[in-house]
Amino acid sequence: MDFLGSYGSDDDKYFVRQALPVEPPTRRITEDTVPQDGFEFIHKSRLEELSSVPPYLLSSVQKKMYWKRVVAQFFEKRAKKLQANRAMLIRKFPLEIDLPGKDEKKWCKLCLGSKLYNEIYKNEPCSEKVVAYFPVLSIVSHLQQDMVKSVLKYLYRWFLAINMNESIACWVYSLFACLERPVGERCQKFIEAFKVAIRKRMKACDDESEGKQLHLILAILDENFSIN
C-alpha cells in the first residue's frame, strides 16, 4: 500500500500521457508553444521531459528524437541570425563573382564543379575544369528569395540525378537557412516533395556518409519546415 501510495499525481499524469493514443501535431511544437488542445499539451510535455533527461539515459527512439531536436534548434539559430543580419553580411562580405542568374547549368558548375556537372549533364559535358564554390556568405547572403528558391529546385533535380552528394547537401542546408518563413503553398509542396524523395533514397542508400547527409537534411525539413 505504501508503495502504491508513493506515486503522486505527477507520476499518474506521466503514465497516462504515455498510454494515450496521441494524434500527430498539425503544426510545429516547441517548448515555447502555447498548447491549443490536449494533444499539443502532450507533445509539448514530451519535449520538456526529453530535454530534462541526459542523452546517455535515452532509448534509441528517444536518442533519434533528441538528435533531430538538437539539429533543428542549431539550424534555427543559424537561420535566424543569417536572415536578421543579412544587410550587415552583404556589406561585410561583398559579392566577388558574377552570379549565373537563372541558368541552371551555370549554377551547377558553380555549386558542384565540372566533375559532378558532367555526371548530371552527360549529354552536354563541360570540357574545362571548374572548381566548385562552397556556399559562403559572400554568395548566399546576396541571393534574393526568388533566387534562393530557384537554386533549391536545381539542387533538388541534381539530387534526383546523382543522390545526396556532400556538395549538394552543403548547398541545400545553406539555402534553406536563407529561405524566409513562412513559405507559400507552392514552396511548401516543393519541400514536401523533397522530403518524399529523401525518404525514398534513404531506403536504398547503403553509403554511410550519404546516409548522414540524408538524415541531416530530412531532420531540418521535418522539424523546421513542416506544414503548420
Automatic annotation (TrEMBL):
GO terms for biological process: spliceosomal snRNP assembly. Gene3D superfamilies: 1.20.58.1070. GO terms for cellular component: nucleus; SMN complex. It comes from the Eukaryota. It holds the Pfam family SIP1. Belongs to the gemin-2 family. This is Gem-associated protein 2. It comes from Trichonephila clavata (Joro spider). The gene is AVEN_166608_1.
